[in-house]
Design goal:
By secondary structure, the chain is mostly helical. The chain is built from five helices and no strands.
Length: about 80
């Protein structure tokens, strides 16, 4: 039986050492709508994340960015 774990965004940012941004009201909804229309997160564009993340062996967001960009050259 699979058990899901929920992690709040603030905790993810803290664990990854990423920056936290504050946007004006409705900005994130507008970005999400534009991205949805553009199809910017489709597996065809970014790869199947559930498979990619299992291949990744780094520890932070910078490691992921370097690995993903390098891996994208071989995909």
């Amino acid at each position: 039986m699979r058990r899901s774990i929920k992690i709040k965004n603030d905790e993810v940012v803290r664990l990854l050492g990423g920056k936290s941004y504050s946007f004006p009201k409705y900005t994130t909804q507008l970005i999400n709508l534009a991205n949805s229309n553009a199809g910017g997160t489709r597996p065809k564009i970014v790869g199947q994340m559930s498979e990619l993340i299992q291949e990744f062996d780094g520890r932070c967001l910078d490691d992921w960015e370097q690995w993903y960009l390098a891996e994208g050259q071989t995909l």
